[in-house]
UniProtKB/TrEMBL annotation:
Organism: Undibacterium danionis
Highest classification ranks of the organism: Bacteria, Pseudomonadati, Pseudomonadota, Betaproteobacteria, Burkholderiales
Name used for this protein in its record: Uncharacterized protein
Length: 122
C-alpha cells in the first residue's frame, strides 16, 4: 500500500477536506486542511508524521497539554480519517471542526507541501 498522494472531500455548503501525504518506508508525512463550510466557515489545519502499519496509522501530538489524535486508514482510492482523541480546539481547529470522514484520492504523485498554514496567506 502506497499512501502517497492528494486526497479531497467536497460536501454541502462549501464543506471541504484536503489531505496531502508522502510515504517514505513506513513513515507518512501529512498536511490536512479542513473547512466546516456555511454558515460559520470555521476551519482547521494540521501537519505531522506518523508510522504506517499495514494500511493505517495514528498521529498523536500534545497541544497546550491536551492530546490530539487522528487515525488514518488508507485504501487504494480513498482514505478514512477519524479524530480519536481531543476536541476541535485540542487539535488547533476552529469551533465544530473535526478530522473525520472519507476523502477520495485525486493523485498518486508526491504533493507539494506548503511551508506554513495556507490559510494565513504567508
Amino acid at each position: 500500500m502506497d499512501a502517497t498522494g492528494t486526497w479531497e472531500y467536497h460536501g454541502p455548503a462549501e464543506l471541504g477536506k484536503w489531505l496531502k501525504t508522502e510515504q517514505r518506508n513506513n513513515k507518512v508525512r501529512f498536511q490536512l486542511e479542513l473547512q466546516r463550510g456555511s454558515p460559520s466557515y470555521n476551519s482547521g489545519w494540521i501537519e505531522g508524521e506518523f508510522e504506517l502499519h499495514d494500511k493505517s496509522g495514528t498521529f498523536q501530538k500534545t497541544f497546550y497539554g491536551r492530546l490530539c489524535e487522528i487515525t488514518f486508514q488508507f485504501f487504494s482510492n480513498h482514505v478514512e480519517i477519524s479524530q480519536s482523541a481531543g476536541s476541535d480546539s485540542d487539535c488547533g481547529f476552529g469551533n465544530n471542526v473535526w478530522a473525520q470522514g472519507r476523502l477520495k484520492r485525486k493523485s498518486r504523485s508526491i504533493p507539494k507541501f506548503t511551508n506554513n498554514d495556507p490559510r494565513t496567506g504567508d
